[in-house]
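User: Batch of two.

Assistant: Item 1 of 2:
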Amino acid sequence: MSSSPSPLSDSPSLSSTPLTATSSVSPSPTPPGTGKPWYTIVNSSVELKLFLDTVVRHISLPPKLFSEALRLPPPQSSKIKSPQHLGVLREPELVPPKLFDVPVTIPELYVDAEGVSLSRSGELSILIVHVETASFSHTYLLHVHVLKHRTFNMRSSDGAHTLRSIFQDNRISKVLFDCRMDSDALFGQYGVLLQGVIDLQLMCLAAQGGGRRYLPGLEDCLLNDLEIDSQERALVSQAKSRGRLLWRPKSGGSMQRFNDDPLHEDIINYCVVNAAYLPRLFEAYAGIGNGVSTMAVDRLWESEDASELYDGVHSWRTRILEESKRRAEKALDPEFTGGSAFNPWKPWHMYDDEDDW
C-alpha cells in the first residue's frame, strides 16, 4: 500500500474552486495512472446500496480474527542484543529478519467520523469508510446528515448485510484512530456499537513504548511516522489545515460545514486524509513488510531471552486489542463525556500492573 499513489496526488485541494456536486458520478479527482476516482460521496439511497454492494464484494466476510491472525513464529534465537541507540528500533543481529514478520491479511476497513460536537449528544455528519484490499482501494464519504438512519439500515442487494451488521461484527476488523468519540456518536445516535476495533492511536503508543504524557494526534502521526516525500507531506498538512479553517470555531469556522450539501472541497479533502492514509499508518506501526515489528519496545530489547521478547510483543498486541474494545464500549458508559480533547494526560507503561493506559 505504501507504493500506491497518494490520495492527494491529483487532488484539487490547492484549487479555490469548490465542488459543485456531491454525486458519486463525477466530482472525484483521479490519481495518475489509475483512471478511476479515489473517493466517492454517498448521499442517496441508490449510492448507499452501491457502496454496500462494493464493500461486500471486496472485503472478506468474515476474515480471520485480528488476534488470531497476528501470531508470530516461534523465537529463533536466545541471543538478542540491545540497539545501539535507545529509542530507535533495531533488528536484533542474531535473530532472523522474519522473526517479527506478521502473517496477516491487513485489515480492509478504515473508518473515521466527523460532525457537530461529535458525541452522543452532538451530530454525526459524515462517516468516512476507506476500503483497502490487494486489488481495491477507495474512500467513501457517507453524508449521514442527509442519509440519517438509512446509513446503517440499508441492506445490500443480497439482503444479507447492512453497515450496522458489518460494524457490529467483531470478526471484521475496523481500524480507527482514537475510536472513542466516533463510537460514542454511532451508538448514542444510531444504536450502532462498534466491534472488532483496532485503535491506531494505541498502536502509536505501543510503537513508542508507552509512557507519553499526551496522546498523539492523527496529523502528528501522519507527518512524523509515515515515509512520505516533502510534496506529499505538504499536501497532507495543507488538507488538514484548510479543512480546520472551515470547521473549527476558534479559527472562524463552523462545525456546520460538515452538514453542507454539497460539501466544500476543503472539507472533502480533510475527511479523505483522515481515512485514506490509515492503511499505511497501520503498516508502519505493525511493521508489516519491513521485517521488524515497531511494536517491540526498548525494555524488551534488553532481554537476553528470545521467548520473553516473543511474549512481550504478544502482550502489546493483546493490550491494544483489549484496550481498543474498552474504548469502543465507552459508548455504553453513561458517565463518559469525551476522548482525547478531554483527558490528554494518559501515560501508559508496558509493565504497569494497572489496566489504565
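Item 2 of 2:
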Amino acid sequence: MVTATIDGQEVHWINQYAGSAASSSTAAGQPASLIASACPYCAVQTTISTYVGAAIQSSTSSIPASSATASASADSANPLPVSGPNGGRGSWSRHAYYNAEAGDSYGFTFLNHFGGTLGKPGTADGGPAFGASLSYASPDGKSAAASPQTLQNQMIEDDVEVIVMSNRSCEGDSCGYTRPGGVAYHGFAGDQKLFLMEFSMPATGKTGFNGDMPGIWLLNAQIPLTSQYGTNPECSCWTSGCGEFDLFEVLDTGDFRCKSTLHMAPAGGSSDYFQRPKDKTIKAAVLLQGSNESAHIQILDDSQSFDESLASEAVQAMTQDDGKGTMSSVFRLAGGS
C-alpha cells in the first residue's frame, strides 16, 4: 500500500513491485489482448480509435509531481529507441473507430456484466466464485441487450462500467477459456498498439461507493472472459499478474487528479497525476510498444485528428511532450532497453 499526501489530502493505492521482465504471453498461453473499460462516469464523447503498426521513437517526461514521493517504475528521463518491423519505419492502420456524436462505430463491441440476467445472452455458470459473465451493453450502458448495440452520445453514469472489445467473436478455443454459453469477444492483440481517445470526466457531486470517481483502464482480455468480479480471486488471472493498466483513474470522490498505475509483473505507479478534464474534453494517446517494452500515455493537442491511417512520423510527433513535463507519462517494463 502506498500512502501519499497530495495537496494536503491523503491518497492510497497499491503497487506490486515483483517479477522479472514482462512476458508477451498470459494465462493459458493466450496473446496479451487488451480491453478498454470506462467507469464509472466518463463522457462518451466524440471518438475512440485503435491502431496497430510499427514501433516509433517516443520522448518522455513526467506529469506534475506532488510534494510526496513514492518508489515507482514510471520512467521520465531516458528516450526510447527507434524500431519497427525488420528495424524499419511503417504506418499505423486504424482497426476500430467510435464517434458518439455521429453514432458511427466499427471494429468495437460494447459489453458489460449482466450475463445470465433478464434472459439476455450470457451466463453466470460457476456461481458467485466467477461472478456475472459478459453481456451486450444497452445503448446507455446500464443494462444488458440481446445483440450488439452502439453506445449513445451521453454520459456513462456513476458506478456503471462499459467494456470495449473488438468485433471478433471467440470461436472454438481461439480465446482460451471462456464462460460456457456466454458472450465472448477478442481484445486487441499485437505488441504494437495505439489507442486514441477523446473524453471528459465531469463532476457529479455524488458520494458513496464509486461516487464521482471516474476511470479509464486496460485489462488483459482473459480477465473479463473468465472472472472479473467473482468472489474467488483464484478464478481470475489478475492476481497472478496477467495485467491491468489504469490510464486515467480518480481515486478519491470528487478529486481532480487522474492517476496512472500498472498492475502486473513488473508493476509501477507514482504520486504524479494528470489533471482531470472536468469542464471540457481532452484528447489522449496510449501507445504500447513491445519492441522496447514501454507504455506511453500522452495528452494531445485539441486539433489532433484520428485518421484512418497514421505515418510513423505522425505518431512520433503526437507522443512528444510540451517541454514542461506536464503532458505525458511513460512506463518502462523491467528488461526494456
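The CA atoms of residues 6 and 66 lie 6 Å apart.
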